[in-house]
Amino acid sequence: MRSSTSRAATDRYSEVETALIDANRLGREELDRIEAYRARTGASFTEAVVDLGVVAPEQVQRTLATRAEAGTLIDPDATGVSRAVVAAYDPDNALTVKLRALRSSLFAIEDLERGDLRVIVVAAVGTDDAPGVAANLATLVAQLGQPGLLVDANFAAPTHNSLFAVDPAEGVTSLLSGAEDRAATVVETPVPNLSLIAAGPAINALPETVERVSLVEQIRAIRLGHRFAIIDAGHQPPEMVAAIARGADGLLLVVERTQTPFAALDALLPRLEAADVPVLGSILIR
Prior knowledge:
The protein is α/β, with parallel strands linked by helices. It has 2 domains: 7-55, no CATH class; 76-285, Rossmann fold (3-Layer(aba) Sandwich), CATH 3.40.50. Helices cover 44% and strands 14% of the residues. The chain has 15 helices and 7 strands. The chain has helices at 7-10, 15-23, 28-41, 45-51, 57-70, 76-79, 94-106, 109-113, 130-142, 160-163, 172-176, 206-212, 215-220, 238-245, 262-274, and strands spanning 118-125, 148-152, 187-188, 194-197, 228-234, 250-256, 279-285. Strands 3-4-2-5-1-6-7 form a 7-stranded mixed β-sheet, with helices on both faces. Helix 15 (262-274) links the parallel strand 6 (250-256) and strand 7. The longest helix is centred in the N-terminal third of the chain and has 14 residues, at 28-41. It starts with 6 loop residues before the first helix and ends with a strand.
């Protein structure tokens, strides 16, 4: 039987650690074991509970995610955020649930806390649903409590400024054109912890510029403390998608049953391989 733990006994723990203690009803005996292990190994609290088998890894992720999301849901009517960004206000929506499961496989909370920027590209083949997937996935990752970026490189159909009710003057094309102040391309959204780099103003020779200048390198050079970046590459020509994704940690394919032609995949996948961009998985829409 687990021993009870008084509130005074948990006062020295952070809010996140206290959430884990409360959700998993950790008693004094378990906490003593955890602290002894931490002193011996230098492990964090969440690492210790998993290493000792006190809490299952998936339960750690679930507890932390649930706690984070409880404080970050927004009112779309009050903020102007589009109702298409269902993850911002409806945790039980089918798309929210589907992408939350995907988030767990792509972004571990402790990895985000370490500070390295993780860059994931979302690209669609045979469907126009990449913006919705990218916006909702970025919102869900932001709900984990770490700052991040949503980047609109969907030049054929830029969408995210309207989805998040912002109207920036600069954006991705500014970065590609050598903007002196990269940070000026970043604007906050009404979603806590989530900023946006919009598509930006039209420029000449866009395909050649995307090929010549690494967007991912430009994003990594911003250095405003962001822990993740999700780039919407939309439904664009395969050479454009591969150029946008160059240097990213991976790419997610958005596909639609009966609508995604195999020929389009055959055109894109070799280009991603040549650019050394791993395909992390696919999201089936409808």
